[in-house]
Design brief:
The chain is an alpha+beta fold and 334 residues long. Helix content is 43%, strand content 21%. It folds into two domains: 188 residues, D-Maltodextrin-Binding Protein, domain 2, CATH 3.40.190.10; 128 residues, Glycine betaine-binding periplasmic protein, domain 2 (D-Maltodextrin-Binding Protein, domain 2, 3-Layer(aba) Sandwich). The chain contains 16 helices and ten strands. β6, α7 and β7 form a beta-alpha-beta unit. The protein starts with a helix and ends with a helix. This is ABC transporter substrate-binding protein. GO terms for molecular function: transmembrane transporter activity.
Amino acid sequence: MKQLLATTFFVAASASLVPALAADGTCGRVTIANMNWQSAELIAWVDKAVLENGYGCSVDLVPGDTQPTLTSMAEKGEPDIAPEAWINAMREPLDKAVAEGKLVYAVEELGEGGVEGWWVPDYFAAAHPDIKTIDDALKHPELFPDPEDPSKGAVHNCPSGWNCQITTGNFFKAYDAESRGFNLLDTGSAAGLDGSIAKAFERQQPWLGYYWAPTAILGKYHLVRLDFDVPYDEAEWNACTSVADCAAPKKNAWAKSEVFTVVTTRFAEQAGPAYDYIKARSFPTNEPVNEMLAWMTDNQATGEEGARYFLKEKADIWTKWVPAEVADKVKAAL
């Protein structure tokens, strides 16, 4: 599969021969942050393909991660584009940089944002339509038996060492799950958590626990997120829900993780039609992203290979982001 996908599709002119963004609205040279997680790698390579083949840009991908990339963009004006910036943790400095005219929130790349919560398998939800919320599920420990102690129910925890482990533990306390007959099951790692889901689906067994989207797992196994019973309370979240060892957490909902494409003001003002593409490039729901990540995982595909597959197989999505003549150029490059 990887050999089949390895082509000369992503061919860039030498950066030394191509000017940086020009004041006349031509595209020139563009730098894109290639973040170190799967969905961000995918969209970075999609942007590279569309900008090079559809708009004549010369694109360099540069390694990136959320905080160092966005800080560099604000302070140094490089790179030009952060395709998938999870901005919750950096909202204050980013808002300041936008107000100062250094950066622009180009588009909400993931319309649903990053989604976290407690989930159950779709087949379980269909068989138990009365279980719609976390409280509903916690009324029935017998439906989610702990594999190590079947007399108790099990809530599968977030991987060890992740921030969501703190939040999940506080939810477990806030919803009084222990006194209702549940154990908080430590899955150890992301692989352990994924394995517990795969095992449940293979055997069509009940499962209850933490997960998030967009992810490859949700592209392969259809989970249904439970409602939270209460609205999101930001003050409670900051004071206790997200704080380790909080003594008395209250019920809460997960904060939506906002995911934007952030660009430098220079790019927004000088890239011309190329910026119109960036402003249009958005996924209203996470489902197609989940599906792509599942394909990439199953095929051990790189971001480059994932982008080629996406552009070949998902034209119904990406051709809505560009004019017809641009779409034709990208298709011809395939």
